[in-house]
Every structure is written in structure tokens, then in C-alpha cells.
Specification:
This protein has 7 helices and 5 strands; from the N terminus they run αβαβαβααβαβα. The longest helix is centred in the middle third of the chain and has 14 residues. The protein has one domain. The radius of gyration is 17 Å and the shape is elongated. By secondary structure, it is α+β, with helices and mostly antiparallel strands. The two termini are 29 Å apart.
């Protein structure tokens, strides 16, 4: 998963030529490729990545999630890196299938990497809000 998130980071930074006349006239001819494929969400930054873990005991699951968060910190931890045009930290959300089954996606199931908040619903985790 750490390798995959690193590849996502490379992909999210990839630009394509946007030669529309207006953009060419103002010298803005590069566009992030992913923005040509995904509709705007109203959220700034790169698309969020959500991972659901299952198939192990609760202690093993916690260990696995913590290891994934440690191995992917370079991709999701924005305070370690200055903003670069075309790239930003990747919001990473993690949950267990057990929690999703018990509470649903809007229940207290999602943890956003780097957020010092309790688990929360999907929209709150995506928006990085406590409410």
C-alpha cells in the first residue's frame, strides 16, 4: 500500500498540455491530469484515498494500520513538506470493515491520517472537521 500511495502521489503531480486559446494566451498551458478526469468536489488538494482493513484480529489490525500510516507518512503528512505546484499531501482515510459494518460509513468509523481526532463519519473525515 505504501508503494501504491507513492505512485498516486506521482500521478497526482502529472500534468497534461491544455492548449485552449484562453489558457495559452495567459501562459497557463499545464493542467493536472487527474483534474481532467474527476469532477470538482469543492475540497482543495488532491483526491482523498480511503483504505478499509479486514481479515485480522483487532490488535493485528491496529498494528497493520499503524505500520501503513508510518510507511506512507511522506505522502499524507503535509507539515513535513512545503506545498508544491501540482502536488499536495494526499489525504488518507482508514477504517476497519468491522466498524463500517457496525456503524455504517457516516458513523464513527474513519480515521484521517495525521488528525488528532477520534474516528468520525466519512464526510467529516473527508472535510477534516470534528463535527
Amino acid at each position: 500500500m505504501a508503494e501504491k500511495l507513492a505512485r498516486y502521489e506521482q500521478y497526482f503531480a502529472r500534468t497534461v498540455y491544455d492548449g485552449r486559446r484562453h489558457n495559452a494566451m495567459i501562459g497557463d498551458t499545464d493542467k493536472l491530469h487527474w483534474r481532467t478526469l474527476f469532477p470538482p468536489t469543492g475540497r482543495s488538494g488532491t483526491p482523498q484515498v480511503a483504505a478499509v482493513f479486514t481479515g485480522m484480529s483487532r490488535p493485528a489490525l491496529v498494528t497493520c494500520i499503524n505500520l501503513v500510516l508510518e510507511l506512507t507518512a511522506d505522502q499524507w503528512h503535509s507539515s513535513y513538506r512545503p506545498y508544491r505546484a501540482g502536488s499536495d499531501a494526499i489525504p488518507l482515510l482508514v477504517a476497519s470493515l468491522e466498524d463500517l459494518t457496525a456503524h455504517g460509513p457516516q458513523g464513527p468509523t474513519w480515521h484521517r491520517a495525521g488528525a488528532n481526532m477520534p474516528k468520525r463519519g466519512l464526510v467529516q473525515a473527508l472535510d477534516n472537521t470534528a463535527e
